[in-house]
Amino acid sequence: MSGRTALGTRGNIVDAIHEHDLVGLKRIHGATGLLHSIGAVFGGGTWMHLAAAHGNPQILDWLNEVGFDLDQESSREGDRPIACAAAEGNAANLRWLLKHDVTLDTSASVRNPLFAAIIGKSPECVQMLLDAGIEATVRYTSPTMKDMDAMAFALYRSHYEGVGTRDLAILVARHLADGDVGKIGSLLEDAQERARLNGVPTLIRLVPTTDEIARMRWDESGALILE
């Protein structure tokens, strides 16, 4: 296959995944297993990574049937398909992957699906990962962050992205504190200090008061519905 033909076919595969066109995807793959010979080349990931982010569970299921690994690490960062689903807020795909017992890799922040769900601003994905037992207290120090766990990461991003990301930090704290309002407040205050270590101005308060936390309510997906 020529480079130009491969490039055109790659674009067709991308379109089929984005459009949830399983029939078209099967037709491209054909009897020769074409998807295995054309790399996805998106961040070092596979077609499973792309489908986890932008496809649907039916496409994930079919890719798994034809030999694509649900737990494949990307060649660049080592992230797995579940992190791609979380980063795009694709709750249906995240739910499907969790049912298939994929790895919840917390060995680095770029591989951590909980961090990815925070980037995706998805309370539903955050809640699913917490319910699945992901380690929510692991902290990372690297050239881009210092002593950062999921709560501090969400608060750090809330300085730039607004209250919606802050609410994800509250959701994680609520889970860790088992609903204890005082402990939620304590966890968030500690996370706020670590967000400040990473560049958030000291004068900016990122977390609600204990009284504000006591008035908060969440729906089943983890979204804050009353404050």
Walk me through the structure.
- This protein has 227 residues and is mainly alpha-helical.
- A hairpin with a 2-residue loop joins strand 1 and strand 2.
- The strands form 2 sheets. The chain has a two-stranded antiparallel sheet with strand order 1-2.
- The chain folds into 2 domains: 125 residues, Serine Threonine Protein Phosphatase 5, Tetratricopeptide repeat, CATH 1.25.40; 92 residues, no CATH class.
- The N terminus is likely disordered.
How many discrete domains?
A: 2
CATH topology of the largest domain: Serine Threonine Protein Phosphatase 5, Tetratricopeptide repeat
The amount of helix comes to: 55-70%
CATH homologous superfamily grouping of the largest domain: Ankyrin repeat-containing domain
Structural class: mainly alpha
CA gyration radius, whole angstroms: 20 Å
| SSE succession | HHHHHHHHHEEHHHHEE
Q: What does the average pLDDT come to?
A: 89
User: In percent, how much strand structure appears in the residues?
Assistant: 5-15%
Number of helices: 13
Q: Brief description of this entry?
A:
By secondary structure, the protein is mainly alpha-helical.
Feature tags:
227 residues; Serine Threonine Protein Phosphatase 5, Tetratricopeptide repeat; 4 strands; 2 domains; mainly alpha; 13 helices; disordered N terminus
Q: How is the secondary structure organized here?
A:
Layout: H1 3-18, H2 22-29, H3 34-37, H4 47-54, H5 57-65, H6 81-87, H7 91-99, H8 113-119, H9 123-131, E1 140-142, E2 145-148, H10 150-161, H11 163-176, H12 181-197, H13 210-214, E3 217-218, E4 224-226
Antiparallel strand pairs: 1-2, 3-4
Helix pairs in contact: 1-2, 4-5, 4-6, 6-7, 6-8, 7-9, 8-9, 8-10, 9-11, 10-11, 10-12, 11-12
